[in-house]
Design brief:
It is a single chain. The chain is built from 3 helices and no strands. The protein is an all-alpha fold. It is globular.
Length: 110
Amino acid sequence: MSEKSESHAFEAGRFIVEPGKKLDLSKHDPGNTAGLDNKKQGKGALGEDVSELADAQELLWANGKRSVLIMFQALDAAGKDGSIKHVMSGVNPQGVDVSAFKAPNSEELK
């Protein structure tokens, strides 16, 4: 995998959840920008991260024992679809499953 530049400092390790453990999202600041000050920096960092994600996907596919779960949680119209589109733009779509979990309707609540 490529070397990370100093353009941003996203610490993915904070979000790794070991089997049987729980992740407490209340301990994470939703306004964290990972050191990015503007959209231009964000686009550059995204390019690096998408490339690294594509490399990781190849390794995971070859290994066949592990996978990655990426969750997006936000209010309606918060940009989740666009974020997924950009983040997953560099990976092979055959190795990706996307599922939407919406509020249950009245019949599902019964």
